[in-house]
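Good morning C.,

I know you're traveling, so I'll keep this short. The sequence:
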Amino acid sequence: MKAIIRTGGKQYLIAAGQKLSVERMKNTSAGQAVVFEEVLAVIDDKENITVGTPLVKGAKVEATLIKEFKEKKIDVFKYQNKTRYRKRYGHRQIKEEVNIEKIVTK
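The tokens, ready to paste straight into the viewer:
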């Protein structure tokens, strides 16, 4: 069984037993159970697709938070020629890795 969920402004195609890195969620810690309520579509084992309008009613995805980590650093460099303008800075996004336990439909 597969599902499409929305979290952190992004959409993910997931399956049970899969590890997934998502944007940081509020008030979570390692080992805690997480429930994703925003399920956009569900695909069962027989390839039947249930598409929500916009969400599938009664569907949710249960997961466990594994760890919180920082991504690789993104270097940003701004430059304008002939004006001696140069700015350089970096950014590391905080992400969380979750293990998808099961997809629940009604």
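Safe travels,
E.
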